[in-house]
Amino acid sequence: MRPQSPAVFLGRQPILNRQGLVVAYELLFRASTGQDVVDITDDSHASMNVITHAFRHFGSSAVVGESKAFINFNAQLLMSNVIEALPKDRVVIELLETVDIDDELIRRCRDLKAQGYRLALDDFSGYSEAYEPLLEIVDIVKVDIPLLDWASLAALVHRFRLWPARLLAEKVNTPARARQCLALGFDLFQGFLFARPVVLTA
Asked: What is the pTM of this model?
């Protein structure tokens, strides 16, 4: 009798548009079922685990259907050739907030954009001029809603309107915050209010 293969786990959380329709999923590292949040100590390992499970074990169609897959990348993976192995029409490259912005990283992002990949900035909660070269490139900025009060959020959104990137409100956990984000013109929404991450198992 053949030994049973280890279980494979993959988290996903839907991303909705203003009409409440699912347009994408963020794919998340999970080591077991029943995990809403995971303490990740190795970003590269977590992202490679997500990529391998989503595109090899499950298959992208089974995981996200016709929607886009948001996948986290740190600077190390961003500079590797891993991205070029992913279908550009199915993924959004999500740059973790821990990446150091330098000329090499900006060149890499421009090259990926020229190849047809979509880019997103993760966990944005404050403006810095250092991000301006990336704001000219990325397609989506994910704003960390719980870290901002109404006045700070409104000011940040007003500043972001200088760039063409769409705004995604992440970690939206209450109806009041969802109404605020709608009023401010956010394009996309993600959070426990809409759906907790679901863990797929194979």
From this structure: 0.89
